[in-house]
Amino acid sequence: PPRILTLEEPVLHLEHCIAFAVHGNPAPTLHWLHNGQVLRETEIIHMEFYQQGEVSEGCLLFNKPTHYNNGNYTIVATNQLGSANQTIKGHFLEKPFPVYQISTLSFFCRIETPKFLCLDPKTFSFQVSIAVGLAAFACVLLVVLFIMINKYGRRSKFGMKG
């Protein structure tokens, strides 16, 4: 029956690799589980191995894995005489932005968001409209000052040309 000789934690080479070695005669068929569910191989996650005598050695390869790929990976080796499996924890990335619920309005606020922005959407939109109004008022005031300086600021007090 098959025996799993080694199963190593993910290591980054050109791609992330969970290395394994399985012994069995006849040669076992290999498949993987991710958190107990059958892992479907894609261009991003695929298995490469070679058979040398009664030993199959290879890698489960990950091309740029994210936090969605974190979890338990189980290799299952099966032949006519039996089966064997072994599990290893694969951790690739942390979740990028932890999100916390702060009100019953289902409005989410991130840790790095300033407290005055952690409000329900109606209050937040009111604050934004006030900020836009103040910015528009400041722009109008600057344009009026610029026009007045250009109109009245060119005259010399004493009638001399400088």
Automatic annotation (TrEMBL):
Immunoglobulin I-set domain residues are: 21-88
Gene Ontology CC: plasma membrane
Q: What is the lineage of its organism?
A: Eukaryota, Metazoa, Chordata, Craniata, Vertebrata
Tell me which Gene3D superfamilies the record gives. Immunoglobulins
Query: Which species expresses this protein natively?
Result: Leptosomus discolor (Madagascar cuckoo roller)
Q: Identify a single GO molecular function assigned to this protein.
A: transmembrane receptor protein tyrosine kinase activity
One Gene Ontology term of the biological-process aspect is:
cell surface receptor protein tyrosine kinase signaling pathway
Entry-linked InterPro entries = Ig-like_dom_sf, Ig-like_fold, Ig_I-set, NTRK3
Query: Any idea which UniProt keywords this protein has?
Result: Membrane, Receptor, Transmembrane, Transmembrane helix
Regions crossing the membrane: 124-149
Q: Under what name is this protein listed?
A: NT-3 growth factor receptor
